[in-house]
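Async update (no meeting this week)

Hi team, since we skipped the sync, here's where things stand on the single-chain job. The sequence we agreed to prioritize is pasted below, unchanged from the tracker. I ran it this morning and attached the output directly underneath so nobody has to dig for it. Comments welcome in thread, and please keep replies under the output.
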Amino acid sequence: MPSPIKVGIVRRAGFAVAATAGPLGLAYRFALAYRVRAGYPRRNPPLITPTDLGLPYETTVVESDGMRLPAWFIPARDGLPGPGVVLVHGWESARDRTLPMAVFLHAAGFHCLTFDVRAHGSNPPEALPLTGGEFGRDAEAAFATLMRRPEVTAGAISGHSMGAIGAILAAAADPRVAGLVATSAPADPYRLTRQTFRLAHLPIPDAIAYPLAWLTTRVYLRPRGHSVRDVSASAAIARYAGPVLLVHGDLDPVVPVSHLQRLAEAVRNARLGDPDAASVETMVIAGGEHSWLYEIADYRRAVARMLTVACGGPLDPDEAGRIAAATPARRIPDAETRFAAMEERYGGLRTLAQVALPGGTRRRVDDDPQTQPGPSSADTGQPAAAAGLAVEP
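Output:
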């Protein structure tokens, strides 16, 4: 007959395992549901072309991991040799959202290349959740495309939000990148995950939210085979040796300005003790939010001046900054859509409380309202009658 003492110990151990396994199982289901609902961007095909903003352009493609990503090359100075800049849009955005940047950079003498990141714009949806790693791969491929142009003598890269992560990863991977501009950039995937909990108003106390964000980030990245460090902007920017300009709005409700401080600390610490290290500039815009910082003259001046110094022309840096500041850059006419993962509809992060229900971690077909990208004015080259604004221009 088994000892009652041993039975009691085993029973208590079983209760402890069950008490631990229950919350861990629920946390894992939460992470799976998060991956399903936050990992697949709503696609917003371009609705205008550079022609609509008075810019010349050539339709081209960026070849990335076997995909042909639609792109526009916008030549400056009648195609004379000079520096170029790759523009990387943000989450649920498209290449037309970057055109206000192209307007003032073109005026300052820069060739521009802008493209649709995979699963965005006119591209088909992806089978796996999208991460900063894919933004980085596509941005790196776009930079290689830019550098193959006979008009381009030197190249830089500029990105916004998730596109800024892509720009940082690409700059760290290609030593030819002469300058890096990162606007409203998240510092690392873990903190970005924690921030999305806040944006979705999920009532999760910090004591639970931080370890849950740790787990959720790793579950999110697993299908693509990424580690957290692989897609961390803070880790990547420390490996980049060229000039850096980090810009953030102090009222950014999506990616708090503390992310800029982390990025700046990472890159500066990596350059400590090197008297020949390239410049690291930061710019915090009072009253600035997450998007549309290009509407502010001081932003345009700082970006154009920094890139002119980094790329060696084509104009005098102060003249380039003056021209950029004097060139209006306005957001595309407003028909804004919210970040799909934040919506109340099925699939939005605000439904994550349903993870305990059957099917809570499965992706439904109607999670992507555009199962097939339709034609747009940007595909035909015709001016658009109206333009929609994605969450991240």
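Quick observations from my side:
Residues 18 and 171 are 47 Å apart (CA to CA).
Residues 50-188+228-326 form a domain with the Rossmann fold fold (CATH 3.40.50.1820).
Reply here if anything looks off.
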